[in-house]
Amino acid sequence: MTFRAVETLKKVDVILCEDTRTTRKLTNHFEIATPLRSYHDFNKEEVEDRIIEEMKSGKTFALVSDAGMPVVSDPGFELVGRMQHEGLEYSVIPSASAFTMGLVTSGIPSYEFTYFGFLPKTGRKRKEKIEEIMNHPLTSVLYESPHKIKDTLRAISGIDPGRNVSVSREITKKFEQHERAEAARMTDMLGAEIPLKGEFVIVVEGAPEIEETFDMPVEDHVAQLVVEEGMKPKQAIKAVAELRGLRKQDVYDAYHKK
Q: Which of 66-70, 125-129, 172-176 has the lowest mean pLDDT?
């Protein structure tokens, strides 16, 4: 929690939260007396109109989540969209986000990455999503629960046991832990070196580039493009050079010696 976040929660009229019991622990710790009101996936459509009307009348609200950054894999984007539509002012107070912290501590390339959030719970969609992640060229970041983490790592290891994977748990809490290993080794670590407790962030290294192989000589490849694709020799030479990662001059020489 930042000073700005604490001061904001003290100044607003109402704090919207997923579970008032969870948020009460936070507000008690920081001596925040602001009233709490439930706002979660199961009641957000029912309470949204009332919240918007109260905002229009001048009442101020803060939205918090049980853990991490509000709206990220948590309810709230609908309310933000509604406020935009109604022309109501709002601001974002920076706070901890598990997926960014897990990514930073992973040691896996992070210049480009894709955040997948939580996987589908069961069945074909879950299997397809894991396959998508394992074929994804960029680093992937996802959340997982303690009772599914081992099955997820088994699935990852089944596709590519040597893929680098980072697992973080209990981020910002007393038993915070970060581990990185190849997928097969990480699967064995779960339940042993890594307790199956808390919420997990998994960071998966992007899929390796697959080098395309060609079963024909360079000069035949150029000729094929000329005949079958109708390219001019100059165009075909350039295309073959790019496809094979060769110098155009080398491809030119090979073709014209044919």
A: 66-70
